[in-house]
Amino acid sequence: MSIDILIVDDSITIRAMTKKALALSISDLGQVYEAENGILALARLAEKKVDLIITDLNMPRMDGLQLIEKIKRQPNLADIPIIVVSTDGSTERLSELEHQGIRGYLRKPFRPEQLKEILSEILETTYDHQTHNTDVGDF
Amino acid sequence: MTTKPITLTSAISEVIENLTMMVVDDPETCENFAPQLRGQIEFTGPVNGSLGIQCSENLAQKLAANLLGVEQETMETQANAWDALAELLNVVCGNLVTSLYDSERPFNLSSPQINVIVPAQIDDNKEQSYSNDDSQRAFILLDDEPVEFVLSVKK
Ligand SMILES: [Mg+2]
């Protein structure tokens, strides 16, 4: 199966970097959608469900925490695995995210191989999907 | 709670080296520093304050090209350079506040704002920042271009 992914981040730079890391990590990458905040992410998800969401926390209009809360309350979306990519690495925030049921966390700045590692674990356990075996290297 | 001036430059350098593939150095002098862009991000939480950045437009373009993995000459818009600078500020600030002040309780960061510096503002800003006792400055060279960070804490 091909894996469709939604990247939510207010920085176009981070979205582009993440997209690149995804292309290097997933052998059967499907559509990669982008949204710059939680509101646009929910609008995208209402149109098309994805297999995985990668979201920032600090965003204008609707932040990542509010987005995750709304996704988890919608029965048709609640099972989509979520990876959080954020500068916030405080222990309180991490346990809050864990409590909300996120599947992975990456602190900015991150290396492509760190994203690949999290992806392979989630995709294998959720969809029995293998990531690339090649070394993703640096950007 | 006070900031730790010794670790400010090294903490900033470490984050930038991890984010970019750019070389971070100590400048020999910060004379003739004429930045064109200024960015600012506010943080609230266990400690409240702001982090500012000043640099050239060329550095912002270099940074964007580096992060996007493209040649600087092929960079399309100014928006990309400003976005890259804003994200650098966001990442540096988020890492700094946890390493300098509190790694357990979360901080909230504002959206970073980038502006063009009007030449007349440069001196005003220096005076404003120096008048704040809790301001810490860090000067670094990023790919041979000077960048200044100003960390200010509200009492
Ligand atoms: Mg953000």
Strand content of chain B: 25-35%
Assign the CATH topology of chain B.
Chemotaxis protein chec
Q: Tell me the helix content of chain A.
A: 40-55%
Q: In oligomeric terms, what are we looking at? A: heterodimer
CATH-defined fold name of chain A: Rossmann fold
Largest sheet of chain B: 7 strands, antiparallel
Number of strands of chain A: 5
- Strand sequence of the main sheet of chain A, in spatial order? 2-1-3-4-5
Number of alpha- plus pi-helical segments of chain A: 5
Question: Nutshell version of this structure?
Answer:
Chain A is α/β, with parallel strands linked by helices and 139 residues long.
Structural description of this entry:
- The complex is a heterodimer of chains A (139) and B (155).
- In chain A, helix 1 packs across helix 5 and helix 2 (38-47) runs parallel beside helix 3 (64-73).
- Chain A is α/β, with parallel strands linked by helices and 139 residues long.
- Chain A is built from 5 helices and 5 strands.
- Chain A has a single domain, classed as Response regulator (Rossmann fold, 3-Layer(aba) Sandwich), CATH 3.40.50.2300.
- Chain A has helices at residues 12-25, 38-47, 64-73, 91-99, 112-127; strands at residues 3-8, 29-35, 52-55, 82-86, 104-107.
- A 5-stranded parallel sheet of chain A has the order 2-1-3-4-5, with helices on both faces.
- The longest helix of chain A is centred in the C-terminal third of the chain and has 16 residues, at 112-127.
- Chain B is an alpha+beta fold.
- Chain B has one domain: CheC-like (Chemotaxis protein chec), CATH 3.40.1550.10.
- In chain B, strands 1, 2, 3, 4, 5, 6 and 7 form a 7-stranded antiparallel sheet that branches.
- The longest helix of chain B has 23 residues, at 78-100.
- The termini of chain B are close together.
- Residues 9-11, 56, 58-59 of chain A line the site of magnesium ion (MG).
